[in-house]
Amino acid sequence: MTATTLPAAPSGVDIKARPAVARRAPRGENRAGWLFATPFLALYIAFLIGPVLIGLVISLFNTTTVKAGVGDWVGLSNYADVLSNGDFWASMWHSVLFTLLTTPLLVLLPLMFAIFASRISRNQWFFRLAFFAPYVVPSAAVCLIFAFMYTPETGLITNAFSWVGLSAPNFFGTTSGAWFAVVLLTVWWTFGFNFILYTAAIQEISEEVYEAALIDGASPWQQIRMITIPLLRPTMGLVLILQVLSSLKVFDQIYILLAGGPAYSTRPVIQYIFDTGFSAYRGGYAAAATMVYFVVLVVISAGWFLARRRSPANA
């Protein structure tokens, strides 16, 4: 058998420098991909894109929820009313305040507990289950449980303050007490989701890295500080943006536990939209407020996306 000699490359031409030619998928593969994606696209258009377009149209009319039809054309007057309404901006601030109160706790505490749980040599499944289990409990059930624990004189959390010699705040009668109540509830309830994200990321870190650090004499704290936390930074960025968007969309726990009280001092923007649309029957105005809030969320998401693309780690 004779060896086959490949033709030599022309002088001055670097074979490695030749650009790779992307293989174009056959037409049959493209058709099959679109067919598989069709059910998702249909649901996405029907339940996401469709409602957004309908809301955009309704926001331009004097629509009411107690009368058929879209009502009279008012153009951008609904948006002008929203942007000049102090109650809207107050509710917007309540959503932002809730985000500022909960996001640091729900980004850092799950990280800390996920790292500690990964260091436990036995029965890690128990801690993962214990931390994640509250997340699957319905919001109504969680609010009912905490409402009993916040009950004056008889509630578990109220009595816990007296056990350490402190007076319990008025969870339902004061603004500060109400914020404390809803933040504590939210941290306990949603802690597990971020915990699982961190746990999955920690499992992706190779054990060989820790073994090499151990051979070099690194202590457990040095391994966490120099290996675990730096390698978890992409996950921390993901958890941060997901938590910010989730906190800005808060509604269930505040509405069920506090009804936005006392005196609407904790009412978030989504409850404000709900009240104006279904209690005051101002459908067009509520749609305009929804569009404004939608734009705010899109701007935050787009800003995070651009910041991630321009960061050195993703360059």
Your description of this structure?
This protein has 13 helices and no strands. The chain has 315 residues and is mainly α. The protein has a domain of 189 residues: MetI-like (MetI-like fold). α2 crosses α13. It is globular, with a radius of gyration of 27 Å. The model has no long low-confidence stretch (mean pLDDT 87).
List keywords for this structure.
0% strand, mainly alpha, MetI-like fold, 13 helices, 315 residues
List the helices and strands and how they pair.
Blueprint: H1 27-58, H2 77-83, H3 86-118, H4 124-132, H5 139-149, H6 156-163, H7 175-203, H8 207-215, H9 220-231, H10 233-248, H11 252-257, H12 269-279, H13 283-310
* Structural class designation: mainly alpha
Oligomer: single chain
What is the name of the CATH class of the domain at 93-281? Mainly Alpha
How much of the polypeptide forms β-strand, as a percent range?
under 5%
C-alpha Rg, in Å? 27 Å
Instruction: State the helicity in percent bands.
Output: 55-70%
Task: Please give a quick description of this structure.
The chain is mainly alpha-helical and 315 residues long.
